[in-house]
């Protein structure tokens, strides 16, 4: 199948397929005599694997590792689990960071009168070097 057909079958855009080839995530496709890329079922399965890994937030480097593990039938599943749990820890840290940011912004928005007065605790917090989220000053 050509790149358009492979893109449709895998759910990965042709542009991304070319990019993945250019960075070595997937091998360069075979070519027809006229220079068109040719893909088979194995390449489409690899592209689907990459797409699923991307939807789970894995970066290119980890996907490369996971692809290697997937293709190595002699590997131990413990290594795959280790890679997955490292990613889980990073996701959980990011979630905690985003939750803290959301909580701070929600608190600042709750403190803001949202009226015609120029006083705004949100802007005051952004202007402070420490960004400690000052207590509400109603009045």
Dominant shape: elongated
| CATH overall fold name of the largest domain | Multidrug-efflux Transporter Regulator, Chain: A, Domain 2
Distance between the termini: 70 Å
Strand order of the largest sheet: 1-2
Q: How many helices in DSSP terms?
A: 6
Mean pLDDT: 92
Low confidence ranges = none
How many separate domains?
2
Reported CATH architecture of the largest domain: Orthogonal Bundle
Summarize the helix and strand pattern as letters.
Answer: HHEEHHHH
Class from secondary-structure proportions: mainly alpha
Helix amount: 55-70%
CATH class of the largest domain: Mainly Alpha
Share in β-strands: under 5%
Instruction: Give the beta-strand count.
Output: 2
* Rg, Å, rounded: 24 Å
Characterize the main sheet.
2 strands, antiparallel
